[in-house]
Design goal:
It comes from Micavibrio aeruginosavorus EPB. The structure is a single chain. With 180 residues, the chain is mainly α. The chain is built from 8 helices and no strands. It has a single domain, classed as Up-down Bundle (Four Helix Bundle (Hemerythrin (Met), subunit A)), CATH 1.20.120. The two termini are 12 Å apart. The mean pLDDT is 85.
């Protein structure tokens, strides 16, 4: 079975990790120096790289879910919208992703969008919160590539990370089953 999509997803996820570590170190350095970035003759200096790290993470999410599609039916759908890619999965697979311990045991998933009127409805479920979180990261790759066009952007990195964990796990299980 072809694993090119998975390998590229891993590449972008690893790039996110490197950039994320750089961001953490940059912010720590700025705190130590009273909020001023250290100018450096080095190639990267110590300025944070927030947009590129989010772009890499968001693209990794997209590729991991496309890899899951590929493992299940031999082709990956087109498009960048994470919610739409998730909705194209078979019902049992969507259930498996949601039931994965990284998501199902995370109390923050059920919160969903704090500003959503639906959230205060008695019919609002933990799954609705999950879908709200998925919606919040759905267009991250497109939005953050062009962050200069927006005045304010938000990306739920923590949710993207637990979603990746669940999707990778389900894809790995499906890949093993297909080899049996």
């Amino acid at each position: 079975m072809d694993i090119k999509i998975r390998l590229q997803a891993d590449d972008f996820f690893n790039a996110y990790r490197v950039l994320s570590e750089h961001n953490t170190a940059s912010f720590e350095e700025m705190q130590r120096s009273g909020g001023k970035p250290r100018l450096s003759g080095k190639a990267f200096g110590s300025f944070p790289t927030m947009s590129p790290s989010v772009v890499c993470l968001a693209f990794a999410v997209e590729l991991y879910i496309k890899d899951l599609h590929f493992v299940l039916n031999g082709k990956a759908p087109r498009g960048h919208n994470i919610l739409r890619l998730y909705e194209k999965l078979p019902e049992n697979v969507k259930h498996d992703v949601y039931a994965h311990k990284s998501i199902n045991q995370n109390p923050f998933v059920a919160r969903g969008n704090a500003l959503s009127v639906r959230r205060f409805s008695k019919d609002y479920t933990a799954y609705d919160g999950f879908i709200d979180q998925l919606t919040a990261i759905s267009n991250g790759f497109e939005k953050w590539r062009y962050s200069h066009e927006s005045t304010a952007l938000q990306y739920e990195e923590w949710f993207a990370l637990i979603f990746i964990e669940a999707v990778k796990s389900i894809a790995d299980i499906a890949r093993i089953r297909s080899l049996a």
